[in-house]
Amino acid sequence: MQFFDDSLHPENQEKVVITVAPYGPEWMPQDFPEDIPVTMDEQVQKAVDCYEAGATVLHLHVRELDGTGSKRLSKFNELIAGVREAVPDMIIQVGGSISFAPESEGEAAKWLSDDTRHMLAELTPKPDQVTVAINTTQMNIMELLYPEYLKGTSLEHPAYQAAYSEMTVPAGPAWVEEHLKRLQANNIQPHFQLTGMHALETLERLVRKGVYKGPLNLTWIGIGGGFDGPNPFNFMNFVHRAPDGACITAESLLKNVLPFNMMAMAMGLHPRCGIEDTIIGQHGERMTSVEQIQQCVRVAHELGREVANGQEARAIYRIGVQYKDVEETLRMNGMAPNRLPGQKSVPQRA
């Protein structure tokens, strides 16, 4: 992305789009009973509370009544319908990793089959977005979950730690291409969850080949364990290399969440918060998803940036927009055109 001399001035920046992930599938309800909803009514109300606090994008997972993460698409349909009715302007972003949580103690966290994962394109009512990973990657969330933060939680249990440390994100070329095809056919926008520069480069190749024709909403994920680590240089390199027309959100974990959100908002980018990313604040105290949203709002206001409402967030994300061909996709995302036969150097737009 390019930055001009006045790019850090708030009057030249988009309004802040706050993403919240309040369902935290890696935690069990007893880990934070004050803030982990279990019943369907509680899960819908959590979305309402987050929207009223200032979040306009809801990263959605669903729980069963026993508190475990649901793998049933019917439960996703039910929660999406409830949220759509309660807060119609909120952007519903379904987490593409719908089987993060082990079903029973000590069971390895397994992903559903590829065919079932593709069924996310068939959810009813239709979500606005489904998150899509690029390239199969290790996702060892335990690598940076320090023991002092896990004390007294379900993740203190060695069997759970073993399960979560061995997770991978299966996102090979054939699956990604088919998944993008199905999402676009159903006018569901993919939100790309990128683990580092290699994933961004692969995504650019997919765009240049015409596999994906739409806006680029990207989340950089700095959580370590196979993804980029929470190092500002990793984030800055990603921001530097991202296309000018991309919309970028920062995601990290635990005490790294607030610093990366502050960096993102200072640069005109966007934050993500919620108990899926951290259940503690900077002083080690439990911090609810709503409290984290309120903190982002305060920081945004201190930086002079306004917080987007639901309709404004939809415009910034270009929800519902698709492009007719590769050339339009490249142009609208601020990318250089593809090289024509015989053309030298980097092609420039007229």
TrEMBL record:
The keyword Transferase applies. It comes from the Bacteria. Its cofactor is Zn(2+). Transmembrane segments: none annotated. PANTHER family: 3-KETO-5-AMINOHEXANOATE CLEAVAGE ENZYME, 3-KETO-5-AMINOHEXANOATE CLEAVAGE ENZYME-RELATED. Coiled coil: none annotated. The keyword Cell membrane does not apply. InterPro entries: Aldolase_TIM (IPR013785), BKACE (IPR008567). Pfam families: BKACE. This is 3-keto-5-aminohexanoate cleavage enzyme. Keywords: Metal-binding, Transferase, Zinc. It comes from Pseudomonas knackmussii (strain DSM 6978 / CCUG 54928 / LMG 23759 / B13). One of its GO terms (molecular function) is metal ion binding.
